[in-house]
Amino acid sequence: MIVPRNALLCIALAAARFASGQQDHKTWSNYGGGADSSHFVALSQIDKSNVSQLRIAWSYPVSDGHAYLFNPIIVDNVVYVLARNSSLVALNAETGKEIWIHENLSGISTRGIAYWESKNRKDRRLIFTMNSYLEEIDARTGKSILTFGKRGLVNLREGLGRDPKNMIRIQTDTPGRVFENLILLGSTTGEAYLSPPGDLRAYNIITGKLVWSFHTIPHPGEFGYDTWPKDAWRYSGGTNTWGEISVDEKRGIAYFPTGSPTYDYYGADRIGSNLFANCLLALDARTGKRLWHFQMVHHDLWDYDATAAPQLITVMHEGKLVDAVAESSKQGFLYVFDRVTGKPLWPIEERPVPRSLMPGEQASPTQPFPTAPPPFARQKITTDDVNPYILSPEERTAWKARIAAMRNEGLFTPPGLAETIALPGARGGSNWGTGAANPALGLVYLTTQDWPTIYKLSLEDPLGKPASAGNSGASVYSARCAVCHGASGLRSGAGPPPLAGVGKRMTLDSFRGVVRSGKSEMPAFPGLEEASVKGIFDYLSGLESASPTEAGPTTGGPVVASGGAPSGRDIPAGNGKQYTPLGGPPYPVGVRAPHDRYYTNWGLYPDQPYVIGPPWSQVVAYDLNSGAIKWKVPLGQDAEATAEGAAGTGAFMAEHHGMIITATGLIFIAASDGKLRALDEETGQVLWTTTLPAGSEGIPAMYEAGGRQYLIVPASSEVNPGGGHSRPGESTHSLRPALPRGYVVFALPIK
């Protein structure tokens, strides 16, 4: 009998996975499915023959109008979710019935939590960050564990070599990664000048004691110190892992993707290549010792953070089985390395790139370009790429003229005082939650979004504008908030959530906490006066929301605790100093620093994101045994462009949409158009589609309970079937009115 070559490859790779001792992929007890972040599930009940029979098994409403991007985790027969009023809720995995609620965790990380259990399973803990503290809850009772840290808290602002009182927020919204008795953490430092450093840290899960710390901005005598100015470790910030961490549990290697240094778009105070910014960094998970690194962007000036989870795969390369790690990037590249040595599987070339024209700036003369695999996103834009749909003839002509006048020399064109354009931009390419893999077969899957960014540097902090006359809530909102959240609190197009009617969804205290400390990608405004905060809240609360809030459960459920550990809601007030949100404090005494600080507004134009023509988002499949793209398919379809004859557009706002890969050859992915899809892993063909009650962001989860396989999908975001071009008030909140937005759980019918 002759066995086909691809069958032999599958057998060899599967054998390699079992020999490697990696996770079995049959549970979803941690963020992203487990330590390798693959989103892969080795359950067999749902397959290509019956996927069309999936039905709603149960649902759980969030009922407060918030968009929850939370990845549920499942342990035994319990599902843990983040729901109404930022409460952690334990649910019966088969029925959705509430087991316990720990309510009012305002400031908790929004994308997920970590889970740990002792070897005898008598000690089970949920681990999370809240208001820059690390804390834990007993997974069985829902109550805070007060023996952890100091009365249940570990202050993450401490131990960074800066004054903790000046750090408004340091936690990341992506949960850390559990390894043995350690919780490995990155951080979200903010994007201002003189932000905190992005040190990588590991804490003991039982005691809260700091076990190790790795300086991503090297101190004197440390490797990489010479890639920065000599005093940079005293004032530079960022170079942080705010995205996703993966761990090779057998080898004890943790893989951290790191972000850009601050300030993101002007680096005259950080001349040099800036290790360990924009790196894939492999550390000994037990000690924090550097094993190897690769820098994907030198001296970043584009906010090209590495955020997506490193994918741990086994491939057949040059006739040998190789355990590899693949890291996708915002700039549209997929970098593939030997997991142990860090050697690229295919050559990566340093190529010349455009120079900076900014005073005091020294852009890197070269940047790394992988020779394989090919890029997964478009990396250039010309006037011929202006959108042929949706735009009016006048808009199209104006955009062609505007792009023709920009500095546009391809990938890595530095920002300047005149407009420059980048594709992919800072919000394009691959982002957190968007990678997955079939690890044993060497297949990697990505969602990608083509979204250009337009940069123009100036001396004006776009978030530090003074309010107009009267200092009313409306004027302060217009000066500080409207650039991102839209006029009158109604987002038009892609961007952060609308705020109109916010008083129906959160209290003034919760609103104040977000404004003071920031949330997710929103910067903090610690210096904003109390009267201004209340004025903005009252102004937004009086506006009509485009999305009515559903009524929640009437009982409130079995509440066992509220607010987390004592004092866990403390938020520093910025030491009383009125720094602008991006400007930051003065440089330390004795530091020779540039006289001027330049800024840009991130280059986002939410009123007109459709500058470039389709496809706007895609799902991309790589076969890394050959280094080739296996297939690409659009993710969704834009209704407005379709009405004009467009096909294969993909949906806009596909920035944070995770997927699940199954051993039966299925890919499940939901998007902000309110649809959940099942794709054929071999071809990308859509095999099944259903309508959710709302848009979906974040990562779904899959599990087995009571002999039945379930798929749980977060569906509480705004819906925009027409994509990002809709006008304020046109957003469709609920596509399935009979079902409130929240978590929707699917399963095959019971026979």
Layout of SSEs?
Blueprint: H1 5-20, E1 40-41, E2 55-61, E3 73-75, E4 78-83, E5 87-92, E6 98-103, E7 114-117, E8 124-130, E9 133-138, E10 154-155, E11 177-179, E12 182-185, E13 200-204, E14 210-214, H2 232-235, E15 237-238, E16 246-248, E17 253-257, E18 261-262, E19 279-284, E20 290-295, E21 311-317, E22 320-328, E23 334-338, E24 348-352, E25 366-370, H3 393-405, E26 420-422, E27 435-438, E28 443-449, E29 453-455, H4 473-480, H5 482-485, H6 508-517, H7 530-541, E30 559-562, E31 617-623, E32 628-634, H8 639-643, E33 659-662, E34 666-670, E35 675-680, E36 686-691, E37 701-705, E38 708-715, E39 742-747
Beta strand count: 39
Number of domains: 1
| DSSP strand content | 25-35%
Distance between the termini: 39 Å
Structural class: mainly beta
Fraction of residues in helix:
under 10%
Level-2 CATH architecture:
8 Propeller
**Within the CATH hierarchy, at the fold level, what is the topology?**
Methanol Dehydrogenase, Chain A
Radius of gyration equals: 24 Å
- What's the helix count? 8
